[in-house]
Design a protein that fits this description.
By secondary structure, this protein is mainly α. The protein contains 7 helices and no strands.
């Protein structure tokens, strides 16, 4: 694959696709269709110009998603309660991560914020970003 962008080919792709900031569901659907078409192309067949177009469209689509469908931030104890229930865990299953029975109970009920060490252990255990366990208040 060439390592240098062909401005003529790229310009043609841009003119053909007309990517722009997404302001409507119709524009979103159109760009998602283009994105999906490019995303399934075999690696040995996609051009550098197509890869760059895919990157741009992906950013435009993600920006619209983030603006239209924001993910609400939940307090750490609610995240822990959800994950605990979702995975069929009990409080005592989290004691090795959080500490004693009393501390575990306080963290799960929201009476105590998880410490940095506890956050790290929870993130590793549940295989998710530590950010979800950080309280914003």
């Amino acid at each position: 694959m060439p390592t240098r962008l062909d401005s003529g080919k790229y310009g043609h792709l841009l003119a053909e696709t007309l990517p722009a900031i997404v302001t409507s569901d119709a524009e979103y659907d159109r760009l998602v269709a283009v994105m999906n078409k490019l995303a399934v192309m075999p690696e040995d067949r996609i051009t550098l110009e197509q890869e760059r177009l895919l990157e741009m469209i992906t950013l435009l689509v993600e920006k619209y998603d983030d603006e239209q469908y924001p993910i609400p931030v939940a307090p750490p104890h609610e995240v822990i309660q959800f994950l605990k229930q979702d995975r069929g865990l009990r409080n005592r299953d989290l004691e090795p991560l959080l500490g004693s029975r009393g501390v575990t109970s306080e963290v799960i009920r929201g009476k105590r914020k998880p410490s940095h060490t506890q956050i790290k252990k929870l993130a590793e255990f549940f295989k998710i970003s530590p950010e979800v366990f950080i309280s914003l208040d």
